[in-house]
Amino acid sequence: MDKISLDKEVILNATEEVIRRFGPEKANISDVAKSLNVSHAALYRYYNGKNVLWNAVTERWLSNLHAASNEIIKEDKPADIKLFHLLEDFAEAKRRSAVNDPEMFANYLKLAQSSRDVIEKSVEEGTNCIKDIIVQGIAEGIFFEENPDQAAKTVYLATSVFIHPNSFDDSNRKQNIESVVDLLIRGLKNPNRTDK
């Protein structure tokens, strides 16, 4: 591969493939350079070391994983229905990835233990999506909430148990997700609204 065709996207794609091929424990930057037929130095011009490159791969993977969230936010539906869809998507996206893309999910788990920046950014983005819907619900009169920021953090924390791998094989998982989400939404509802 010549230098002109080497860019960040090409490197990220190659890194994902290397992680999938060797797993996050064994994959290294030498494998990425070899798969692209370039030297380490060529990669370091774009990413200053393995940690930076692996963080970038995981950040992009998380962004793609939650792409459906942006579509849910744009739905022309009442806030309570949108919030239900969003929280279900948050819970199911990571489980689907663990089943369909286990190496990248394992890479995410490894990163979660060693580098909090990417994970914290993902949590912040998720919390902001929830807050946007809560604010919409307040404007619609569906939700009554004095502090949308805190409510969004609380909702995110309450549902984050479902993104943990320990919850993936629970035979009551779908029912538990629906029960928790339903309870949270009922807690946000405006008590003065007559069409509850």
Features:
196 residues, Arc Repressor Mutant, subunit A, 2 domains, 71% helix, elongated
In short:
This protein is mainly α and 196 residues long.
SSE blueprint:
Layout: H1 8-22, H2 29-36, H3 40-44, H4 50-65, H5 67-74, H6 79-100, H7 102-114, H8 116-140, H9 148-159, H10 173-188
Helix pairs in contact: 1-2, 1-4, 1-7, 4-7, 5-6, 6-7, 6-8, 6-10, 8-9, 9-10
Domain HTH tetR-type: 5-65
Protein name: HTH tetR-type domain-containing protein
GO molecular function: DNA-binding transcription factor activity; transcription cis-regulatory region binding
Provide a descriptive summary of the structure in words.
Helix content is 71%, strand content 0%. Helix 4 (50-65) crosses helix 7 and helix 6 runs antiparallel to helix 8. It has helices at residues 8-22, 29-36, 40-44, 50-65, 67-74, 79-100, 102-114, 116-140, 148-159, 173-188. The chain is elongated and about 65 Å long. The longest helix is centred in the middle third of the chain and has 25 residues, at 116-140.
Which term fits the overall shape? Answer: elongated
| Share in β-strands | under 5%
Counting helices, strands and paired strands, the structural category is mainly alpha
Distance between the termini: 61 Å
CATH top level of the largest domain is Mainly Alpha
Tally of individual domains:
2
| Alpha carbon gyration radius | 20 Å
Poorly predicted regions = none
Number of strands: 0
**CATH fold annotation of the largest domain:** Tetracycline Repressor, domain 2
Q: Helical residue percent?
A: over 70%
Mean pLDDT reading:
89
Order of helices and strands: HHHHHHHHHH
Number of helices: 10
- Major sheet, described briefly? none
Assigned CATH architecture of the largest domain: Orthogonal Bundle
Pfam family, one: TetR_C_27
Domain HTH tetR-type: 5-65
GO molecular function: DNA-binding transcription factor activity; transcription cis-regulatory region binding
DNA-binding region: 28-47
